[in-house]
Amino acid sequence: DGSGLDAGQDYSVPPPPPPAAVDGHAGQSDGYFKGYGGAAAATDTGAQGLSNPELIDRISQLERQLARTAMGGMSAAPREGGYSGYFGAPPPLTRSMSADAEALEAGRASLQQRLEAAERELREDKEASRGHRLRAEQLELKLKDREQLLVHAKEMWMKENVRASRLADALTAAEDKLADQEKRLSEVSERYAEAQQEVRQLRHLLGTSGGDGAFGGGGAGDLAAGFGADPYAPNSRAKVPASNGFAKNHHNPATTGNLSQATWHTSDLDASRGGGFGVGDELPAMGSPSRAMPSSSPQMSQPLGLDGDTNADRFRRLCLLNDAVLYEDELLQVGVKSEYSGCEGQLAVFFGNKSTAALQAFTVQYFVREEHALRLVASPISQQLEADRQIVQRLAVTLLEPFVETPWLRLQFLLPDASPRRIQLKFPIMLPKFMAGRELSPQDFFRHWRQQSLVLNEVTSIVHLAERLRGPLVHVARSIVFGGALRLHHGVDTNPDNFVLVSQLAEPSGGRGLDQEAQDNLCLIRVEVGSGRFTGKARVVVRSSDHVAAKALVDCIVNQLAEPNAPHASGVSGAR
Prior knowledge:
Layout: H1 19-23, H2 25-32, H3 34-46, H4 52-75, H5 94-206, H6 220-224, H7 253-256, H8 311-320, E1 323-328, E2 332-341, E3 344-353, E4 360-367, E5 374-378, E6 390-399, E7 408-414, E8 420-426, E9 435-437, H9 442-449, H10 452-455, E10 459-464, H11 473-480, E11 487-489, E12 498-505, E13 522-529, E14 537-544, H12 547-561, E15 568-572
Antiparallel strand pairs: 1-2, 2-3, 3-6, 4-7, 5-6, 7-8, 9-12, 10-14, 10-15, 11-12, 12-13, 13-14
């Protein structure tokens, strides 16, 4: 094609070949076909590290290069069956080119074999991967089945766990209920034993008293030793009952019928200036709940009727009740309603004019002997009390410290004929009004009874029982509990004719600083009813952390048990 020839030179006669071309054609052939044989050799040696796609691309490149080489050799031959010019004779390097072509063909065949082997391996690998994929899918299906089974098992476990929790809760509730039932059964058993003891005590109280002619089985020395019996002997007494007095189901019906008469009825008087004195007239509350002592309580009823009551009987009744008539004559009627809470008390005093004429210059005065112990403040009232009318006066009392003497009430007024009249009587404010009953076990009772601070403050008194109390002992018991201010304890004293009571004094607002051992302000009382040659007598023993409180309690109990103006012997056992 004339490539590489100069257009201005005549090449009709080919120049002789260079000597080096004839003699060293092999080296020239090697250098001339360096790109073929060398490439083929390099391809053959470098194909070991090629991948299958790269190997296929390399084979294609070599085939195209081989085709171009063959076409280049053919272009040098004459077109009309001969050679002309430089290409007139066959090229001297055809053998080398054929050897290179054969080598390339052998390499191609080898690569083709390797390619087929690689394809076979690829097909085998594909088959193996397909098998592995199928196996993986089967394993995934099995895994999903196992997961579903696990979820189902977990749900079942949760349900069983909830059911087990419910069963455990039900079992716990049943055990708690069983424990409560056992506790209630134990309490019922204890209460049954207490009720039996109380019934026996009631039967003894309601029956006639008899004995060996002694005061409760022991003297004063026996009292200090624990009532003449071992208080700590096992099973020697029943547990102290929770009630203060007697069982509610064992009233004496004959004594409860007169209770309605204890309240002061003023149906014949018109209400004015403060209203009537009756059940519906209530005093305002004073903060904390007060200790109510209703007049209808069976523990505070009197064994005798009220038709022939004297003013002394009315005073004793007001020591036990919170509302009743204090004084009554042909002209005047005085009633009291009271409410106590701790050291405070509120009272309403009603004055009713029973006459047909007005009472002029009506004045009311209260005298407190121990002003350092009791504060009394009275509201002013009108100095004229009209006929068939009633006025009310409000009182406020405050306990500062224990006191003995009760206040006095003095009434002064002018009769219709202008003659003066004065009435003076005891006013029912005493120390038990500021006390509350307390429950103690027999062991605690005797432990306090033997305390030195209480022994030193012991006060005793021997009294002749009133005629109204010489029957069943229940009348004595009702007269000394003071509406619950003193709590009666059964089973503490082995002698059923004796009464053991416990009370606690409210902390005075101006307290006198009691010692540390007597912070409870306890008052322990024992009333021994005589029998035999001592029938009709009783001995009252009080031990307290405060000597004044013990003296006041003895006086209050003696006032309830003794006949009015009857002599009685008092004494102090402890050193003062």
